[in-house]
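Propose amino acids for all 500 sites.
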């Protein structure tokens, strides 16, 4: 069937409770049963139909897979996917509302919301958790600071303040950066944010408009891709190598794309865990400087260094006139879920970023800011960081051992020196949709590479996050993931696939 004809009559309701893949599946099934699609007719390739219907490739891939399971269509190797003929029974009615598993990861939209649903499913071990386990955090000192402020300055709980944040918290942040990251900064260039995601959002919004392009790492952070998609902006991916972005590719894209910014996570990158070398950090800074293109540096995991030498941030290598934005979230290292962070903006761009912060939420809660200012300089905060670092080195070792011993042949994975994420690449024959659901059936949640690549193409990579500190539970979950991959690898070598 012609792609345009099928896409033209395929009516999808993205606001409906019924999952998009189910709408596609039931529409094609009805067309076959009622004779409008004839036996032997070739269906469009998954990617082509997904593009024509403006949906994720995984939506069409799962619809085809379920139609194949019903015997309505069949893959014939390189020839394509063909109608088998009408079934004896009509298609099963769509459920009134999708279960959490039905909504993952098939539709376009808010990846973060859908990923959280995996972690909330009963009995699922979330290898999606990229923040420290709450069991490692001693919050007593922070809670005490809140109580003291409520008693001494109760007006802070009910006050409005300037959008850029409290001066005492910005000063505490500056001391923290100097102490832990050897980064000297001017507090006048700092904006307090409600977490790292807001820092990314207000920075991007100050630089990028609908139709503009941002250069990103490939793969990259899902929250960035969701933001750009919702803004109507484009992302061009630069391949990640063992020591960071491919610099020649970056240079070429900067010259040819008229991009508005370069977004990078050079320290324990999310999702790969890769650390960009000092040489490449200087190269990225030089490219930005020569072409006048802003660099957005997201640095949320620097304190979680387990081994290796300290490497200065791009921001610390820059001059005041360089257009380098530096974003930090404290929730990734000190108190998860607290939603506090900051942006260091170039002095000439502070006004624009502050304006977007004001539009976003006026200001971050002053009570939280004041309490964290006192906490950040405390011995308890330093003890928390030390405890988390010590806990996660053996956790990472457990993950690496499990992967090395159990992944199927042809798989590779990164070996981070810090942070809470690593990247696994499976054999090309393994379908990412099949793998995602195979892991769920084994009660493990993962984040597939389809969510993390700018073009939303199929990707056999996946992010494995090891924020869970229970090494026994984590080790078992890693083995289940490897078994799911091994089973699919064996199966894929023994049958014709549905052509994607």
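Proposal:
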């Amino acid at each position: 069937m012609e792609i345009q004809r099928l896409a033209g009559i395929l009516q999808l309701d993205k606001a409906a409770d019924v999952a998009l893949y189910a709408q596609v599946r039931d529409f094609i099934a009805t067309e076959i049963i009622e004779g409008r699609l004839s036996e032997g007719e070739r269906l469009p390739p998954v990617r082509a139909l997904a593009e024509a219907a403006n949906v994720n490739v995984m939506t069409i891939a799962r619809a085809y897979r379920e139609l194949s399971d019903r015997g309505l269509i069949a893959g014939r190797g390189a020839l394509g996917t063909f109608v088998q003929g009408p079934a004896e029974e009509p298609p099963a009615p769509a459920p009134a509302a999708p279960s959490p598993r039905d909504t993952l990861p098939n539709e376009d939209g808010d990846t973060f919301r859908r990923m959280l649903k995996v972690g909330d499913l009963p009995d699922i071990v979330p290898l999606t958790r990229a923040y420290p386990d709450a069991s490692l955090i001693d919050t007593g000192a922070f809670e005490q600071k809140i109580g003291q402020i409520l008693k001494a300055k109760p007006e802070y709980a009910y006050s409005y303040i300037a959008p850029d944040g409290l001066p005492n918290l910005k000063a505490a942040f500056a001391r923290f950066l100097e102490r832990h990251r050897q980064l000297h900064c001017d507090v006048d260039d700092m904006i307090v944010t409600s977490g790292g995601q807001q820092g990314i959002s207000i920075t991007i919004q100050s630089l990028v408009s609908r139709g503009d392009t941002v250069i990103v790492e490939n793969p990259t952070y899902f929250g960035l891709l969701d933001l750009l998609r919702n803004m109507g902006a484009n992302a061009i991916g630069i391949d990640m190598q063992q020591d960071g972005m491919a610099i020649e590719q970056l240079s070429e894209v900067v010259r040819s794309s008229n991009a508005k910014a370069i977004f990078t996570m050079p320290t324990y990158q999310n999702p790969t865990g890769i650390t960009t070398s000092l040489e490449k950090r200087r190269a990225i800074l030089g490219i930005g400087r020569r072409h006048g293109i802003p660099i957005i540096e997201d640095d949320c995991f620097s304190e979680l260094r387990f081994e290796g030498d300290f490497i200065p941030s791009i921001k610390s290598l820059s001059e005041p006139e360089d257009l380098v934005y530096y974003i930090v979230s404290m929730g990734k290292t000190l108190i998860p879920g607290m939603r506090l962070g900051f942006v260091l903006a170039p002095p000439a761009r502070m006004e624009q970023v502050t304006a977007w912060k004001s539009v976003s939420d006026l200001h971050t809660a002053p009570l939280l800011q004041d309490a964290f200012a006192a906490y950040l300089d405390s011995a308890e905060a330093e003890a928390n960081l030390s405890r988390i670092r010590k806990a996660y080195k053996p956790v990472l070792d457990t993950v690496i051992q499990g992967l090395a011993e159990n992944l199927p042949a042809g798989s590779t994975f990164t070996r981070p020196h810090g942070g809470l994420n690593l990247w696994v690449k499976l054999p090309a024959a393994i379908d990412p949709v099949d793998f995602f659901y195979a892991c769920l059936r084994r009660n493990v949640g993962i984040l597939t590479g389809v969510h993390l690549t700018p073009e939303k193409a199929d990707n056999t990579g996946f992010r494995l996050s090891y924020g869970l500190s229970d090494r026994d539970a984590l080790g078992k979950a890693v083995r289940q993931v490897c078994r799911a991959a091994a089973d699919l690898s064996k199966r894929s070598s023994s049958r014709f696939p549905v052509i994607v």
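Residues 307 and 417 are 5 Å apart (CA to CA). The two ends are 15 Å apart (CA to CA).
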